[in-house]
Amino acid sequence: MYNRGRISFIAGIAFQAAFFTLFFTATLPRMSGITGFSVCFSLGTLSLISSVYSFMNKYYWSALLIITSVMLLAFIFFIYFSVEGDGRSPLIFH
Question: Model pTM?
Answer without folding.
Answer: 0.84
